Amino acid sequence: MNSKERVLRAFARGAGLPDRMPIQFDLCRDLTEAFGKKLGIVPEYALSYYEDLTYRISANDIRTRIGSDCVVVGGTVRKGFIPEDAGGGATRNEFGMHMKPTRLYVEVVKCPLEAVESSGEIEAYAFPDPNAPGRFDKARRDIDRFGKDFFVIGDVELSLFELAWHLTGMEKYLVGMALGEPWVDALDERVEAWSTGLALALVKEGVDAIWLGEDLGSQVSTLISPDQWRERYKPRHSRIIRAIKKANPKAIVIMHSDGAVAPLIDDFIEMGVDVYNPVQPNVPGSDPGELARKYAGRISFFGGIDQQVLLPDGDKKAISEEIKRRASVLGARGGYLMAPAHIVQADVTMATVEHMVDTVRSIGY
Asked: Do residues 233 and 191 make contact, with C-beta atoms less than 8 angstroms apart?
């Protein structure tokens, strides 16, 4: 059984259970460089249209050598685009966002629509073309290289809410939403069109799954009320998912959201989501036993390994015990792709990453 077959069976897209627990993981730049040096592989980076997604879609050769059953591809900057110097250590991306790298992330320090007041300004704003030349060249190469043996995920994160507020700033966007400003609906419409275009392009390239999502939760609750999310975003997500399924009925839809978003899982299922990610530990509503009781057989799980405390602490016994516990609960009958609940950061050692992978790969059915 190869990696693609293993993940497909875990997601109930094949007869029987996988031969072992499948795994996926993403590495920060520091770990990518370190593993590349160890393996003798020069990391190949795919510069995302939104810089903070770059490491999600890069270095597939390194992650598969370490033991991942999945590769992740996505849209990059268009052919010939070079981020412009915006001063102060920041660059200007295709959206006009000023992006500044930190040790862990690339942050938006200036939003292109921070002064927007009208729908007309939204219509006049030069949105990038999701199908611009060169945007999927790297994705196409990785699908050709890895697609027969590995499960291929097409990344379309920042699908609606998160991309919209990154264009205006969170306060501006949330106040506009609360006041019912018409420009908010106009912006949401354009963001939906962008994300639909990316998703359909990746489906056409031949990915096995589309990874939608945005961070809708904090450590204690959803960022906006569930009812507000259902009114404003659920219909848009539903349209994107219908378009994906129409283009390829076999495509698996993954919904990502960090934080305490358990109140939305039933809605995810109603929208046609097949897999919920990242099942963030240590937030309300993420107890694995409760999730399994309520949702096993209705939606699959992807994630669940704590990278806030467990992996940085590096206690191998504790890591093994927690991984095996979550596997026995969430993956008892399949329906589980194990992964850290976030990109693994530089506070996790290479030895810990290797131990995590080895532990997951040792779990059979």
From this structure: no
